[in-house]
Amino acid sequence: ETGVTQTPRHLVMGMTNKKSLKCEQHLGHNAMYWYKQSAKKPLELMFVYNFKEQTENNSVPSRFSPECPNSSHLFLHLHTLQPEDSALYLCASSQDRIAGDSDTQYFGPGTRLTVL
Amino acid sequence: AQSVAQPEDQVNVAEGNPLTVKCTYSVSGNPYLFWYVQYPNRGLQFLLKYITGDNLVKGSYGFEAEFNKSQTSFHLKKPSALVSDSALYFCAVRDTDSWGKLQFGAGTQVVVTP
C-alpha cells in the first residue's frame, strides 16, 4: 500500500464544513481515480484523470470537486456534504492510456468519511 | 454496457479446503477481468487479471482464476485456503472501449475457519 497513500485516513465533518482529501502515488503512473465505497454497494467510480486531464465524471454532484495538479497528486475537495455521502473514499492509480492497455489499478488505503 | 455479478454475499470454507469465489460478467466485445481483495480498513489489493491468452490465470498468494467465455465467468480459486485469506473479494470487468472504467461487483466475503 505504500505505492498509493491517502490522507487523512479518517475524517468527520459537518454539513457546512469544507475539507479536502489528498492522494499521492509513487508508482510513476499517469492516471488517477477517485472511488466511493459504501456499505453493501459496489465501488462507484467518481472521477478519472489521465495526464492531469479529467477524462471521466460519473455524474458526481458538484459538492465533490476534484483537482489533479500533477500526475502524482489528486485531491477531492468537499463542501456542503450530506450524511449519505458518508463512505470510504478510495484513490487509485494506473498506467496511462498511451502507455498501453494495462489499466491495472493500484489502490490507496482510503479515507473513512463521516458527515454529521 | 458492462456489468458483473458476484452471486454469493459470503463464502465459508474450512482451512485447508479448496476455495472458490464466483464471478459472472456481461460486456460488449472482449472482456478485461480483474480480481481484487480487501482486508479490513485497507484499500483494494490487486490479485490477478485476464486480458487475453491462457484461460487459467495465476496470481498473488496462490490464487488463480479461470476465464470461461461460453459461461461468461471468471471464478477465483485457491486449492487450499488459509485463515489469513478471510477478506472481501471483488471481481471487476471492463470492455475494450472502456479503458479505466472498471465495473466492480458487490463483493464476496470469504470466511476461512480453522
Can you walk me through this structure?
The complex is a heterodimer of chains A (116) and B (114). By secondary structure, chain A is mostly beta strands. Chain A has strands spanning 4-7, 10-13, 18-25, 31-37, 44-50, 53-57, 64-70, 73-79, 87-94, 106-107, 111-115. In chain A, the strands form two sheets. In chain A, strands 2, 4, 5, 6, 9, 10 and 11 form a seven-stranded mixed beta sheet that branches. A four-stranded antiparallel beta sheet of chain A has the order 1-3-8-7, with no helix packed on it. Chain B has 114 residues and is an all-beta fold. The radius of gyration of chain B is 13 Å and the shape is globular. Chain A binds chain B through residues 1, 4, 6, 31, 33, 40-43, 45, 48, 50, 55-56, 90, 92, 94, 97, 101-110, 112, and chain B through 32, 34, 36, 41-46, 49, 51, 90, 94, 99-107.
The succession of helices and strands of chain A, N to C, reads EEEEEEEEEEE
Averaged pLDDT of chain B: 94
Total count of strands of chain B: 12
Helical region count of chain A?
0
Q: Which two chains form the greatest contact, residue counts included? A: A-B, 29 and 22 residues
Number of helices of chain B: 0
Q: Approximately what portion of the residues of chain A adopt beta-strand conformation?
A: over 45%
Distance between the termini of chain A: 29 Å
SSE run of chain B: EEEEEEEEEEEE
Helix content of chain A: under 10%
Outline type of chain A: globular
Structural class of chain B: mainly beta
The class by helix and strand makeup of chain A works out as: mainly beta
